[in-house]
């Protein structure tokens, strides 16, 4: 027997089917291609740059983000996707020995990281309507808090005033706000940065910037928090963002109008699709993301999942996962794709 091997249940991502002519709406990828500026930057990238290491401080990307967000460059750290940033944040900020708090239904990686890094945690149940209850995070001893806002996989958004209540009541620990889907609705927690130094916001280029395959994300916080997480990052992977990724992500930041346009269209299609499902008798949670969590009418979630897959439409089914077992998560594709999905679902009823 080999000693010292780690035994952990890993995060299970959505399927990545290799079939052609499918509608892939199972992993919350953006329905549209990257911006023209990104594609231009890719075509003009000088391949001989790859013989050198990428930037240590990712100055160009951090400066572009700082200008866009109206904050200082020293308040930003970039990494290999927001998963990288979140993992670094767990390692950097949650070392008190007290349990870290996050909802029982949220991004599944939080629990995996806590287990992997041997951080005690407590999952706080969402309400019967899948709402995060603000009071559950006030007056409770903890070693940190993690909140996805809007939440995943529910899509539900908490107001800035409620987020501030949580941040204000827990100023002795770091409160992470995961804003992976903030471009599709809701209000960012960025205004809280000037008032509280215990808030850390994470974002990704995978969703709103249509760059899931690039793997770039970033964190925003006080210079003190950034210095801590930067030190941890440099302790094991200082070159986390490669030269191509930095160049393309910087170009994406510069193409704000393009992304504002496509993400507004996605949000409009989401609301239209929600109305269509409701008209079929489905229960649909109010979403501020690029996906919907829905409970089918007259057929089990598993049966509808299998029916759609047979029609080459891939959605996310969580299996025997407690309260989620009756629900499907459906990402929002183009209007043409979602129109076809409505037609195919209508064939079931």
Report the sheet with the most strands, covering strand number, pairing sense and barrel closure.
7 strands, mixed
Q: Determine the fraction of residues in helical runs and give it as a percent range.
A: 25-40%
Average of the residue pLDDT scores: 96
Round the Cα radius of gyration to an integer and report it: 20 Å
Number of domain modules: 2
Architecture per CATH nomenclature, i.e. the level-2 architecture of the largest domain: 3-Layer(aba) Sandwich
Class of secondary structure makeup:
alpha/beta
Describe the protein.
The chain has 349 residues and is α/β, with parallel strands linked by helices. The protein folds into two domains: 23-33 and 257-346, Aspartate Aminotransferase, domain 1, CATH 3.90.1150; 50-254, Type I PLP-dependent aspartate aminotransferase-like (Major domain) (Aspartate Aminotransferase, domain 2, 3-Layer(aba) Sandwich), CATH 3.40.640. The protein has helices at 36-44, 59-69, 82-93, 109-116, 160-169, 223-234, 243-254, 256-279, 301-310, 335-346; strands at residues 23-24, 76-79, 100-103, 121-124, 144-148, 175-178, 199-204, 217-220, 283-284, 291-295, 313-314, 316-317, 328-331. The strands form three sheets. Strands 2-8-7-6-5-3-4 form a seven-stranded mixed β-sheet, with helices on both faces. It has a four-stranded antiparallel β-sheet with strand order 9-10-13-12, with helices on one face. It has a two-stranded parallel ribbon with strand order 1-11. α3 crosses α4. The N and C termini lie far apart (55 Å).
């Amino acid at each position: 027997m080999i000693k010292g091997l780690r035994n952990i249940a890993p995060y299970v991502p959505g399927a990545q089917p290799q079939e052609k002519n499918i509608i892939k709406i199972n992993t919350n990828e953006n329905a549209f291609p990257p911006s023209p500026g990104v594609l231009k930057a890719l075509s003009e990238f000088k391949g001989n740059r790859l013989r050198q290491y990428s930037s240590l401080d990712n100055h160009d990307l951090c400066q572009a983000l700082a200008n866009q967000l109206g904050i200082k460059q020293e308040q930003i750290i970039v990494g290999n996707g927001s998963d990288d940033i979140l993992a670094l944040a767990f390692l950097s900020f949650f070392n008190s020995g007290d349990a870290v708090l996050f909802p029982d239904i949220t991004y599944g990686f939080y629990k995996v990281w806590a287990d992997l890094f041997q951080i005690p945690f407590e999952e706080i149940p969402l309400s019967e309507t899948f709402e995060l209850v603000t009071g559950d995070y006030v007056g409770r001893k903890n070693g940190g808090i993690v909140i996805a806002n809007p939440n995943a996989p529910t899509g539900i958004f908490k107001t800035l005033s409620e987020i501030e209540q949580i941040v204000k009541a827990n100023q002795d620990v770091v409160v992470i706000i995961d804003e992976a889907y903030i471009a599709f609705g809701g209000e960012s927690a960025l205004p809280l940065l000037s008032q509280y130094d215990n808030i850390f916001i994470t974002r990704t280029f995978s969703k709103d910037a249509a760059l899931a395959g690039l793997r770039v994300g970033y964190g925003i916080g006080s210079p003190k928090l950034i210095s801590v997480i930067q030190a941890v990052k440099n302790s094991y992977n200082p070159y986390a963002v490669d030269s191509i990724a930095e160049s393309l992500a910087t170009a994406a930041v510069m193409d704000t109008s393009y992304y504002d346009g496509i993400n507004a269209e996605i949000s409009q299609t989401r609301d239209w699709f929600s109305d269509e499902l409701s008209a079929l008798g489905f229960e649909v949670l109010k979403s501020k993301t690029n996906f919907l969590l829905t409970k089918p009418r007259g057929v089990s979630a598993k049966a509808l999942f299998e029916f759609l897959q047979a029609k080459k439409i891939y959605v996310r089914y969580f299996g025997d996962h407690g309260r989620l077992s009756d629900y499907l998560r459906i990402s929002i594709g183009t209007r043409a794709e979602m129109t076809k999905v409505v037609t195919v679902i209508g064939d079931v009823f």
